[in-house]
Write a structure and sequence with these properties.
Oligomer: heterodimer
Largest sheet of chain B: 5 strands, antiparallel
Helix content of chain B: under 10%
Number of helices of chain B: 0
Helix content of chain A: under 10%
Radius of gyration of chain A: 14 Å
Strand content of chain A: over 45%
Distance between the termini of chain A: 37 Å
Strand order of the largest sheet of chain B: 1-3-8-7-6
Distance between the termini of chain B: 36 Å
Number of strands of chain A: 11
Structural class of chain B: mainly beta
């Protein structure tokens, strides 16, 4: 397997503040990481794809100026929710892409434990 | 039509029985397929991957893939209460992204 960490695991903030979430691949290098959001009783929704050293690719409907993504190293991607509002309260989960050894195309995604954001 | 279809459940399974989960997908270019387990309030955990047609067994789990039918399934043998969770089917689309189904909730009853 592989280990992906996220920090913080939960955060409560006031409306209008910014929140930064870190995602780290602990035992492998991840050129690509993904950020998802999940509301209660709903499926995972991909927000953006984070590529090391380049700009993130955002899914349709996701505001790139509100959800800032930085992937400065092969083991760290950050998501900053700027000017958070109560409707941004959700479960944010990152995943890291790992290429399977011995193959050139087989890969999988390992998820971090997630960050619960509550905006008051 | 959704890109990935799963029965939402809940699928109620007696302890010790076999749980059978189904998934169909629309992207014919998908080559890699994954099953994730998600406990309530937790993030998804990878339990199986399958890349070729046929069966792949790993412990009590068996994944089955039929690319011609665009169908992938997961069998859980000797179901335990700890298997109670939501199971997510995730084909990797032809453009590389994972497409997650809404998940099937499994409830194993003692």
């Amino acid at each position: 397997g592989a280990v992906v960490s996220q920090h913080p695991s939960w955060v409560i903030c006031k409306s209008g503040t910014s929140v930064k979430i870190e995602c780290r691949s602990l035992d492998f290098q991840a050129t690509t990481m993904f950020w998802y959001r999940q509301f209660p009783k709903q499926s995972l929704m991909l927000m953006a794809t984070s590529n090391e050293g380049s700009k993130a690719t955002y899914e349709q409907g996701v505001e790139k100026d509100k959800f800032l993504i930085n992937h400065a190293s092969l083991t760290l991607s950050t998501l900053t929710v700027t000017s958070a509002h109560p409707e941004d309260s959700s479960f944010y989960i990152c995943s890291a892409r790992k290429i399977l050894s011995g193959t050139s195309f087989q890969e999988t995604q390992y998820f971090g434990p997630g960050t619960r954001l509550l905006v008051l | 039509q959704k890109e990935v279809e799963q029965n939402s459940g809940p699928l109620s399974v007696p302890e010790g029985a076999i749980a059978s989960l189904n998934c169909t997908y629309s992207d014919r270019g998908s080559q890699s397929f994954f099953w994730y387990r998600q406990y309530s309030g937790k993030s998804p955990e990878l339990i199986m991957s399958i890349y070729s047609n046929g069966d792949k067994e790993d412990g009590r789990f068996t994944a089955q893939l039929n690319k011609a039918s665009q169908y992938v399934s997961l069998l859980i043998r000797d179901s335990q209460p700890s298997d109670s969770a939501t199971y997510l089917c995730a084909p990797q689309g032809s453009w590389g992204k994972f497409q997650f189904g809404a998940g099937t909730q499994v409830v194993v009853t003692p």
